[in-house]
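Lecture 7 notes: from sequence to structure.
We start with the chain below.
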Amino acid sequence: MSTTHTRGILTAAAAIVLAASAISITAAAQAADHPTGAGSHGDRNTALADAFNGVDRNTNWQQTSKLKLNFPTYHTEGIAYSQDHIFLSAVQIIEPTVKFPTPQNGFDRTPGKGVGHLFVMDKAGALQKDIVLGEGDMYHPGGIDFDGTNVWIPVAQYRPDSSAIIYRVNATTLDVHKQFEVKDHFGGIVMDKQTGHLVGNTWGSRRFAEWNLQGKQLSTWQNPNYFIDYQDCQYVPTSRMLCGGITNLPQTPAAGGTGGTYELGGMAMIDLKSRSVIRDVPFQQWSTAGHVATRNPFKMTADGGHLTMKVAPDNGEEGNGTEILTYEATVTPAK
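Predicted structure tokens for the same chain:
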């Protein structure tokens, strides 16, 4: 057999392997989006989407538990749950950013210095591992998402119009993989299991971008909604994302003016196909330190019409330290 013929066979074999790998990734993503068992409606688990569409300003949320974290948590950002672990992202500030009088080299502030953390806990909140993430000026982890296998984490510069690294961490082995880098500050991410693509939101969630797993940007669009800035999001079948967030609003002079900002919290469901906000609802309950509960880490589950929300709004050095708060409510799911 000639060398040329042998190389041709090997090249064809490699192409087949790569194609099979791509098919298996897509199939796995779609299978994860169509689970069976409790909570599924037909072949698609739409329980959370249906239940959230029953949430409004009159929904009776009750705080049912507090889980105190007894290790340094710094400034918390995102939370996710796997079968065995709780994952919490946080940024440790060593040198705060400082705003420039006028923009310099496209930036509105200095990079500052810090350390990005992904804390891995057991279900009782005991720290099992502290995974340090980031490179150079990219030290700010954002909102995170668990896709059933991996936890996805963006780690960005702590300033807008900058750059970020997208990481994935295997939720079982805790192996860390640097997936790709992007040119902008992305503070949140979800894995769209319907497409197998990643969707991220920029500083203040003013813009969204969609990438394949190799980091190729497939599309980008502006956020049509200005109600809140999304801080932490999760994927919701089919091709939706549910986000929690906050907006700091100025006050009247009698209430302290711009130095006495009011934290408006809320939640929003976004359709990733139409790129529209399906439903957004304010949420005004408060943490031990006085922050609105949806300030940063946020995740929600549904069992029929019963919703459970997990949040961790307080930093490690304020109030009673970081507490994971559980809120529950019962609604009438959308038909």
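Points to note: Residues 2-43 have pLDDT under 50 and may be disordered. The CA atoms of residues 162 and 273 lie 27 Å apart.
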